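Work through this:
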Amino acid sequence: MLKHGILGLLNYGDMSGYEIREVFKDSLNYFWTAQTSQIYRELSVLEKNGWIKKQTVEQCGKPNKNICSITDEGREELLRWLSAPDTDTDMRSAILMKTFFMGELPIENSLAFFKELGEGYDRALKNLKNASSSIDLYREITSDKKSALFWQMTLDFGERYMKMFIDWTENCVHLLENSEDRQ
């Protein structure tokens, strides 16, 4: 999945590994995390697959940098991936695993857990609202207005997702506060 995210970014224009990481942090990182080392490792794989090419640019007083660009084969792979239906039902979640076994803790500990969790989701929602200004900025500097529409759709999903988590944690707190085990 990371490889397709990188191909998607390079489809917008040529970038160095550092630039890919920075754009990734400002956009994709809200829903797909990757370490810098993972990005560089994936760039090597993409190059071996013939999906990107690198051009070394010499710099005075600095290390040389590699500028990556998507190849025709890479664009074909990106379009193939985008066109393939994929129902995402992967529900792996550390939070849900903890919740499942939370009966081992005293109710007060669980209450504190869900209150803190809700506050974290609230902070994440506020951060997503800040991302809206980044989309507005990118919309102004890109000639591809259609892509900005899809960026907005992705942000909308993230905001709805965080709101669902906030609602869920509030419900968990309510259930725990009214639990017979608490009395």
About this structure: The beta strands are 15-16, 52-57, 65-70.
